[in-house]
Amino acid sequence: MSRKAVIFLSVFLSAMNLQAQSGKGLAVVELFTSEGCSSCPPADEVLSEIAKTYKTNVYPIEFHVDYRDSLGWQDPFSQARYFQRQRAYGQSRVKREAHLR
Asked: Is 89 exposed, middle or buried, given 0-12, 13-18 or 19+ CB atoms closer than 10 A?
């Protein structure tokens, strides 16, 4: 794990601990998206609205998947590991919640 990732994770876990102690809680919302996806911009907007509405209680994350890159639009933010993460969700207990192609 890179030094930057370790620092980020430490800060994030500290923030979660403070939220938990205050009784307010924290939610992580993950969106798997792609710049080459016609239905993704509305989902991006929803995630943005959630982040604005719940500023201190929600940690939004967008993962740009790479499987749409072969359809004509190369997403500069896509990474194969993000699709692997999405697929792992689909194979876990949250299968009903994960959209897979």
From this structure: middle
List the one residue out of 50, 67, 76, 73 whose CA is nearest residue 101: 67
| Residues near 28 by beta carbon (within 8 Å), at least 6 away in sequence | 58, 59, 61
Instruction: Give this prediction's pTM.
Output: 0.65
Between CA 52 and CA 56 the distance in angstroms is: 9
Contact 82, 63 (CB under 8 A): yes
Q: Quick: pLDDT tens for 6-52.
A: 455 555 555 655 565 565 677 888 888 888 888 788 888 888 888 88
User: How far are the Cα atoms of 22, 55, 64, 101 from residue 52, in angstroms, in the given order?
Assistant: 21, 5, 21, 29
Q: Residue 34 is encoded by which pair of tokens?
A: 């792609």
User: Would you state the structure tokens that stand for residue 68, as one six-digit string?
Assistant: 């749409």
| Gap between the Cα atoms of 42 and 47, Å rounded | 9
